[in-house]
Amino acid sequence: MASAPFIPLNGSPAIEFDSVHIGFGEGEILSGLSFRVMPQETLILLGETGTGKTLSLKLAAGLLKANAGSIKVLGKDIGAMSERELLHFRREIGFVFQEGALFDSMTVADNVAYRLLEDHADPDEIEPNVREVLRFVELEHAVDFIPSELSGGMRRRVSIARALITRPPIVLYDSPTAGLDPVTSQTIITLILRLRDIYGVTALLATHRLQDGFALANFHFEKASNRVVPNSKNRAAIHAATRFLVLRDGKIYFEGAPEELAASTDSYLRRFLV
Amino acid sequence: MAQAPLQVTGQQPRWEDKISVFDVLSNGAMQFVANVQDYSILAGRSLANLVSGPHYLQDLLDQMDDIGVGSLPIVLLTGFFIGVVMVLQTGSQFTRFGQSALTGDVVAIALVRELGPTLTGVFVAGRCAAGIASELGSMLVTEQVDAMRAMGTDPSRKLVTPRVLAAILMQPLLTGLADFVGLLGGCAASVFSLRLSAVEFWTRAIDALEFGDLMQGLMKPLAFGFILATVGCYKGLTVRGGTQGVGRATTQAVVISSVLIIIADTFLTKLALFLSDKIF
Questions:
Q1: Residue B195: which of B63, B103, B67 has the closest Cα?
Q2: What is the ipTM of this complex?
């Protein structure tokens, strides 16, 4: 895809939650959530509906402010930043919303180019950039479509393209395969794998579909053959880490590697595995 | 309590097992105060955004086209027939006293001072406050507002300020046109119904108007435009409950902005009369 590199990260955590609390009205949804996502790592937030997965993503993007605790993204305490500072800072984070959240009055091209248009980028640079990211998600032909003309899977892919236009080092995915058929879901997962394995994007991915998590953990995108292949044992050791974090009742119920989750005998975790 | 810009910050009432009348009233009062606070912040920010960038000129022009040009048919049509009705109602009374020539005076003053600004305000509120609330509400429930924020755009600058400024700029122009076609309607009714000459009607109508009347008639719409746009934006950006919530917000936007316009009209009239006594 892009000739320009994604912004490199140093060795400190890309995302760090420390005792984060948040709630609305009655009771807390997240009660002291703490975790770290290291550079180029993919952390899969797993949990039932209403356990705070989307909320965690929105907190990481600074779209919501925590009641207590600290959240550091790219080393910066986003809780201490003003909304104006956050607006600027968010340009370093890509956010793929659950239903795409495309601007329905704009064409696909304008949706993808949105950030560049906001930055008053050179029009001569905008079109090639837009075509490049749309080619990456295999939707170059849909450049003049409007969102209502797209299928659910195409919308997600445009949403991914939109999130990538500024080459952010971190991408937050909110249930990227929710409501999609298995084939389309696989297309989305392949895109996420390509981003991770070719460009080293750090990802926080919320989902309630365990198979997505295992697909990310057990496969990688091979640039030479341009396809998704299973990890060999040696390959898995050197490959970008994929960890699971299961949320329950506002707290971390499980945190660990895919193999640990797969081997778990815990009755609650087994419900996801069935 | 978690807070985010453009989201309701007021506390939701905690419903206990046993709810007393006092609890209901106090929770309602707290909610009302929180809503007023949120509305005031949004309305204040919509104007404060004018001072610093970024500014969205294209969005402003689009909104001026939508609010101004889009409202023209309804404003012109209703304005014309209000002028006609005014003449029919007042003319019959004046005719009883042989003073039908005064119809032009009354219609001009009533239209320019009061009916033109207020009715235009209410009609535009019915069309535009509803449109703004439903558009922004739909954007909110489909996460487009969050997407905007996630991509580094302040929705209050991109969505609210252009709409508020467009309404403030367009409302006096629409009112001026409504006044004019209202007088045209009044003239037509005077000629065909009261057998007055058009020249006599226009002469009396123009002579009856003073500078203070015009000022009053064109200053009020500034406030009405501000009210209808800010209420529409506030109700749209605080939608709760999905598409059903969008429907509720749309209805509330029309009702609240129309009521506020009438209430504001009372105070603005008093202020304008006071100022015209002192200044004009």
A1: B103
A2: 0.83
